[in-house]
Amino acid sequence: MPTKNPRINITFEETTAYLLANLAKQEHKSVSSLAKELIIEALERREDTALSAIAKIRDIENIKKVRHSDAWRK
User: Fold this and answer.
1) In 30-72, which residue ranges form alpha helices assigned H by DSSP?
2) What is the DSSP letter of 4?
3) Which of 10, 25, 35, 73 shows its CA 20 to 30 Å from the CA of 43?
């Protein structure tokens, strides 16, 4: 049965593939499901890093603050 999700082929160096296979075996997962999990985790970390950088730029001392309830008042 075909899947609706797109597929991606990745070629690893032999040592990386070996490490990934061993880790998958230890965690009782398939190599592909572990790879998917690790890629999602890496993407989330990159997103967190980018959002932290934006927050750092926007974090200005002594700036006028607005209470949440006042910001959403009509």
Assistant:
1) 31-58, 68-71
2) S
3) 25
